[in-house]
UniProtKB/TrEMBL annotation:
SMART domains per the UniProt record, alphabetical: HTH_XRE
The protein's name in its UniProt record: HTH-type transcriptional regulator/antitoxin HigA
Source species, domain of life: Bacteria
Matching CDD domains: HTH_XRE
Coiled-coil regions listed in the entry: none
Domain HTH cro/C1-type: 61-114
Native species: Martelella mangrovi
Record-linked Pfam families: HTH_3
Length: 123
């Protein structure tokens, strides 16, 4: 596949196959440059064609944790507080901007999905 703007699902799938083939190519080689270009093209296609998730941030966080085999203790270690992790997951406290940034950075969850308002549990 010659790298070009991806416009169809078939082109997208072909680009993913090529990325898989090139994965691990050394930087500053023709293969590495091709890999970088394909990653950019796939990212562009996904940005244009992916429907934004309208999901509750805490449900998303819990689903991500489950899928990655992470626990509440992992969240506590990441944000620096066992009690805060419990309060967040039990909807007793909202995520802060700093926590959202940390989670997004370390666990690769898009911050824009975590900043949406969500209901807290009744006190």
């Amino acid at each position: 596949m010659e790298p070009k703007i991806i416009k169809t699902e078939d082109q997208y799938e072909a680009a993913l196959v090529e990325i898989e083939r090139l994965w691990g190519a050394d930087d500053d080689t023709p293969e590495g440059d091709r890999l970088d270009l394909l990653i950019l093209l796939v990212g562009d296609y996904e940005a244009r064609n992916t429907v934004p998730l309208n999901v509750d941030p805490i449900d998303l966080l819990k689903a991500n944790m489950e899928a990655a085999g992470r626990t509440q203790a992992d969240l506590a270690e990441l944000i620096g507080s066992k009690s805060r992790a419990s309060e967040i997951l039990n909807r007793k406290r909202s995520l802060t901007k700093e926590q959202i940034h940390t989670i997004s950075t370390h666990w690769n969850i898009p911050a824009d999905l975590l900043i949406k308002p969500y209901a807290l549990a009744a006190a």
